[in-house]
Structures
1.
Amino acid sequence: MDKLVACQTCGLVQGVDDVPKNSVIKCARCNFQIFHRRVNSRARTLAFSLAALILYFPSNLYPIITADYQGQHTQTTIFQGISSLFAHQQYFIASLIFCTSILTPALKIIGLIFITLTLGWPKWKKARTWIFKIISIIDPWNMLEVFLLAICVSMVELGEVATVHPGRGVFAFAACVVLTLLATLSFDSRLLWDSPEEKRHYE
Amino acid sequence: MNENARTLPQAKIERSRFSWFLWLIPIAAALLCTWYVCRDYIFAGPTITIYFQNAEGLQEQNSIVQYRGVKIGEVGTLKLMKDRQRVSVTAELDTAAAGIAREGSVFWIVRPEVKLGSVSGLRTIVLGNYITVQPGNGSPTNLFVGAEKEPIEPIQALDIQLLATKLDSLQPQSPVFYRGIQVGEVLDCRLSDDARAVLIHARIGEQYAPLVRMNSKFWNAGGIDFHLGLFSGAKLTAESAQTLISGGIAFATPPDFQKAATNGAIFSLNEKSDAEWEKWSPAIPLHAVPEAMTNETPLPNFKLK
């Protein structure tokens, strides 16, 4: 008996032995998992960001909306939507949507993958910190979800005039949004400045 | 303190067995992508190129290819050929319709058409012009020369040629009558090769084919026939209301009829009927309506349990 922990769920203080790798601590009373850091942070972040990166391509290459209107059959990808906004002189909205739904998700996904992959390297510690700072800055601007919501609204609203249905890319798009969110949530920034011993313990 | 600590419960330590489940997420994402790629590039139907004289009414990425009223593909690009004589149209066919990309298939563009006596392709006014096809059964190919208009379907029927001095009001789809009943129609009209007569291609429905004999008489039944006789008074005749606008052909077969006409038989088309021809009424047994004429594919036989 060398340590005391308190359960986050029921508050019971209890003793705990050394925890071997690939094991979890469970509360003696409520059987809920007790953790010190975010559980399995590095592996989770890496898995979620990899999946998001893979789905990023179909979500941008495949049409999000298909509309049938008086014999016109149009399929629109996000990028085509942005360029048509540009063509209609809506420069501000077009660049806003470009940043929030194409640029920042890509930066964020690539940044998280870079950090999680190079975490064990003694080099580039500063670079990782910088990347994490950039991710924290662009994160609030990352509002893919809002755009998705706008699409859903237009699907419902336009239903009377034209036949609008989700395109093939919409599932990949939604999955990409959720996975990016999960990747950010599961990343523990303390991993960035852990000493090598701590790293071995918490990864 | 030590005594207190001894009374504290001990937390359980369990091996986390399912941590590798996490890696199923990127694998699932990769599988989804593979499926997208497979569906688009490996399981996709063939892309065919059709050369049309005139692709009027087709739209890039927008027009569709239909067969029997069902969408079987989409038009990709429209391009003018270098010699400016033709337009090449690429179309992506669905996997289910891959069998249509065969030699002998005839593609044509359906456009709205308003002719005297018939209106066709009205749907295209709203939905846009589309390409449709009459499938052939040659070897698979990706290059086709599009037809300008709907090809004449090779159904079982009697095709005859009529020679006339002039066309009058006849036109494609003008009816052919026997005793006032429509038994066939004109398919197309053209000048003979030496330009001395008009060749009219008419088709008689197969069940009425025995009515046409080698010595049958054909006459132009279009328009109104107006007679003013001293004893009979004024007489106004017309074969049917339709012939008033679209013209028509009537024929009669003499009682001493010869053998039945064969495909491609040539008759002369008289300008007027003869009173004697109209009195002819030979007894000719007709064919029963064969299956090919009802234009229905027999249903597959389902075994009832």
Note: Chain B has two domains: 47-145, 157-286.
2.
Amino acid sequence: MLDQRELTPVAEGLIAGTAAEPRLIGSSCRRCATVTFPRQASCPRCTSEDVEERRLKRRGTLWTWTIQCFPPKSPPYAVEPGDAFVPYAVGYVELAGEVRVEARLTETDPARLRIGMPMELTLIEAPGGSGACTFAFRPAEHDEEADR
Amino acid sequence: MTEDVAVVGVGMHPFGRHEGVTGLQMAAVAARRALADAGVRWEEVDFAAGGSDAGGNADTSVASLGLTGLPFINVKNGCATGGSALTTAHAMLVSGQAEVALVVGFDKHPPGAFNPLPEEWGIGSWYGETGLMLTTQFFAMKIQRYMADYAITQSTLAKVASKAFANGSRNPNAWRRKPLSDDEVLASKMVNHPLTQYMFCSPGEGAVAVVLARGMRIRELTRTPVCLRSVAFRTRRFGSFEVFSPSIPIESAPSATAEAAAAAFEQAGVGPEDVDVAQVQDTESGAEIMHMAETGLCEHGEQEALVQSGATSLEGRLPINTDGGCLANGEPIGASGLRQVHEVVLQLRGDAGDRQIPGRRRVGFTQVYGAPGVSACAVLTV
């Protein structure tokens, strides 16, 4: 469990909220309503620079996934190749009406990952032992909150 | 319509691992072979374009080839580097600014997956630090979704790889020349679900060069020209699913490949149904399957039956990646796009040796794809 008092996101401007209820910080175009993550200063769809910050939905559905079975090279990965490597899962989670976000997934058993399954945002310790946290999605119970 | 442009010579430095040989040295070997194939002296070349991702600056090869003062433009466009260089040279020829052009692509990468740095791709360093900056993940996630949408099986992924190695075994310039069965491909270690080790290409080394000419010069130089009917290059639009994307829109759009292919066919005045032999980017098995439909060579979902029936093998109705593709040749980034052109030229001339397609050979097609969403396609005819 991550300690709220020591919550240090892996980068500025990515994550807001609390350890129990984290939110991703995206942006929304005032002209065409396109949502992006991370936030950016212009709209990739309509080119407008009139965009505002937006807290994204915490729940969504798994759009696609894979398991990373080999250790990525460092840099850019924060973990040195010599360290013990545990395969990890990555996916895109569709936040209804907003955007599909790429993230680490807490479930690493391929038999328990299924396109369309409900997911919710959580925080995990970032790789590399810096003590920082990063965002991830974990399997969620299905409920109406997904559309909230 | 503009004046004809044709490939009048091709040359290659074999792909694989070449200890002690630099990327630029391989580029010079490929260039000399292409010039010899064309029967052209270097002094007659009045424009050159080329590039590599990690093998050095293409234009410095003039130190080896000869300092003739020609304009030589360096290109760096990820996996589409070769296609971009070809686009540049083609444009110079059709605009009348050159008569004979050399295009060269080469590279030399260390073993293992590429390790691009997020900062060079406009993404925060956190993306790489947390383990998301991998091309292999993108390809795996794209085919994972595609398999669910279009009922493509893992057996078909394996068949694409075994076909590549079968073709590679007949290609003296290929890196991987040992045939592998579907079962061996499936049993190799998992890299990124659903893709196993032998479904992926490996970064490698190699160089390819082609000589282009226009108008009257074509017939003066060769009796077997292969017409470069069109070459089209595109970047991604909003809504396409591309590599190195921390997020993707829910709204979908055609890929850079789909747009480049459509433009290439339109400019050439032929359709995908006219293609007799095709080389499409097969960074891994899934990419070949998806690119088949994105280029218009088949419908989405049709790949399952085409691959399973052998339609894309050398003897099939639509032979694809006849030289073994990236899977059997490896991926020297700057060279791959021109390797495809090299192979199509050999096939259309009837010079492909043990891997010559047996059927009609009139129209060839090439497609490369690269990060962060670039694609170049070409149509060649005889």
Note: The two ends of chain B are 18 Å apart (CA to CA).
